Amino acid sequence: MDILFLRDFRLETIIGLYEWERKAPQPILIDLEIGLYDHKAGHSDDIRDTIDYGKVAERIRAFAASQSFHLVETLGEHIADIVRNEFGAPWVRVTLRKLAIMRGVKELGIIIERGSRL
Length: 118
What we know:
Elements: E1 2-15, E2 26-36, H1 40-44, H2 53-66, E3 68-69, H3 72-87, E4 91-102, E5 105-115
Parallel strand pairs: 1-3
Antiparallel strand pairs: 1-2, 2-4, 4-5
Helix pairs in contact: 2-3
């Protein structure tokens, strides 16, 4: 399996349980790993033979901007669903990090892995 990845993908969205968290969009950092079973793109050099990471990033950014969330788990689950269902990835790992949200904690978040790594 090949793994296409995006690291430190930054977006802003309304996320959190507390009223003060929901007043303005917060920055979220995402690490996204997308499994690819088909290796045609390495031989063809054609974007149609792989998953276009630009389109993935654009779709996730648009989705996050149009919604609000209470939990990082919910946002992560939606991102995993988008990558698998809309882009056909057999496997995805989504790491979400909220930044400096708690005193003494630089980042907090979740790692969600969905699908099969053959």
